[in-house]
Design goal:
Elements lengths: L1 H7 L5 E5 L2 H4 L6 H15 L1 H8 L5 H8 L13 H14 L4 E5 L2 H4 L8 H16 L3 E7 L5 H5 L9 H14 L6 E6 L1 H9 L11 H25 L4 E7 L2 E4 L5 H21 L7 E5 L2 E4 L24 H12 L3 E6 L9 H17 L4 E7 L18 E4 L5 E4 L1 H11 L2
Helix pairs in contact: 10-12, 11-12, 14-15
Bound molecules: beta-D-glucopyranose (BGC).
The site of beta-D-glucopyranose (BGC) has 11 residues, from loops.
Length: 422
């Protein structure tokens, strides 16, 4: 068994963890921090209603106090990762991880339109070189949800005319960072960003407008294509992709017309549309996998009630397998699992989730699918956007109330020893 596994996972397989700047750094000033301050009271007052509306949180009695506290919704000091990054990179070594995905915080690099902040640029340079010192492959994510205030104030990605600012930012990245980098993710989850911010009204700027959503989505296609060609021209060996949020979408009853058609339409609209039109501009297919969604009736989701994670999300880790096969069938490009994980404060599911995920990758690889890497979400407990601080995704727990103390969770220890045996 171990021998087989050895063959399936090549020596240079990227075993990594992911983070994003806004969710861990602390001390940011961007469109999210403004939104947090404006909405913390509302989110705290309506916590129970908001959580029950979508999913049922099995840990409600334990998290109620936090969820009803406005401070839960303020990213604030983050987990001090901006200052503690060296210490956090030591943890990567401890966990036997050979790669790390992180994002640059645009609002730090360009706090005012056209004004570059040399200190932030130097910070990220030293950040990358500290990873390399530890023999950890840096995977640079250009944009992960947060925006400079001035860019958001001009309408952000809703207006094509604003792409000129993004292009200028890409130019800076090209000049300052890519010489030391092999892997670039341009954008994180364009589908989630466009729908949560512009259709469902859950995230800033809280619009509910299909046209606005489509405009954002299209501009994110343009943004990616531009970034792809300009970075590739500067350094042809770069491997560039996006991190796509893909769900394993299934019909509850494959013989039922409404279940089956809803499934087909959702698979295309949610999973494949963006990747199809940018397929030439993807060197690898980056997959963020969390969800298996069952459709029962016209566009109605009905997932099994168990098992669920702390956020109430139905867990089917092996659902990664059909997704890997489909992604491979569509594009025949190497796949990197750019995010994958569970909100699990008691660490009761994470090891099982990891084990099932490894099996899903092995099955797909044994059938010829090329997978280059796996990045767990997340290295550290982090700020979970509109849910705030209570959901715990980290391989490493962070105690924000006691000096930001880091503690490696048992599941992570298991994962580290599993990797060491490869
Ligand atoms: C996002 C992360 C988020 C994670 C868990 C992904 O959709 O890229 O920012 O923390 O899911 O919800």
């Amino acid at each position: 068994m171990q021998k087989e596994t050895k063959k399936l996972f090549p020596k240079d397989f990227l075993w990594g963890a992911s983070t994003s700047s806004h969710q861990v750094e602390g001390g940011n000033h961007n469109q999210w921090t403004i939104w947090e301050k404006e909405n913390a009271d509302y989110l705290a007052e309506n916590a129970e209603k908001l959580l029950k509306w979508r999913w049922k949180t099995p840990v409600w009695p334990e998290i109620e106090k936090d969820a009803k506290d406005p401070q839960n919704y303020i990213s604030g000091r983050g987990v001090d990762h901006y200052d503690k990054y060296k210490q956090d990179f030591d943890l990567l070594n401890k966990l036997n991880l050979n790669s790390f995905r992180f994002s640059l915080e645009w609002s730090r690099i360009e706090p005012e339109e056209g004004q570059w902040n040399q200190e932030a640029i130097d910070h990220y340079k030293s950040y990358i070189s500290e990873l390399k010192k530890r023999k950890v492959e840096p995977v640079l994510n250009i944009w992960h949800t947060s925006l400079p205030v001035w860019f958001a104030a001009r309408g952000g990605f809703k207006h094509r005319r604003n792409l000129k600012y993004f292009k200028r930012y890409i130019h800076l990245i090209q000049k300052e960072f890519i010489h030391d980098i092999k892997y670039v993710i341009t954008l994180n989850e364009p589908n989630i960003y466009a729908t949560y911010g512009y259709l469902l009204g859950l995230w800033p700027p809280q619009q509910k407008n299909v046209v606005a959503m489509m405009r954002v989505y299209w501009n994110l296609v343009r943004a990616h294509k531009h970034a792809y060609y300009s970075l590739k021209m500067a350094k042809p060996s770069l491997q560039i992709g996006i991190a796509a949020q893909l769900a394993n979408i299934q019909a509850k009853d494959p013989h039922d017309l409404s279940d089956e058609l809803s499934t087909k339409i959702m698979r295309f609209a949610w999973n494949w549309w963006y990747l199809h039109i940018t397929r030439r501009e993807q060197d690898f297919i980056g997959i963020n996998y969390y969800f298996t969604d069952y459709y029962d009736g016209w566009f109605k989701r009905k997932d099994p009630k168990l098992p669920i994670n702390d956020l109430g999300w139905y867990m089917e880790p092996e659902g990664l397998y059909p997704l890997l096969l489909r992604a491979w069938a569509h594009y025949e490009k190497p796949i990197i699992i750019t995010e994958n994980g569970v909100a699990d404060m008691h660490d009761q599911y994470r090891r099982w989730w990891l084990e099932e995920t490894i099996v899903a990758m092995e099955r797909a690889m044994s059938e010829g699918v090329i997978i280059k890497g796996y990045f767990h979400w997340s290295l550290l407990d982090n700020f979970e956007w509109s849910q705030g601080w209570w959901p715990r995704f980290g391989l490493v727990a962070v105690d924000r109330k006691h000096g930001m103390r880091r503690t490696i969770r048992p599941s992570a220890k298991w994962f580290a020893s599993w990797i060491s045996k490869l």
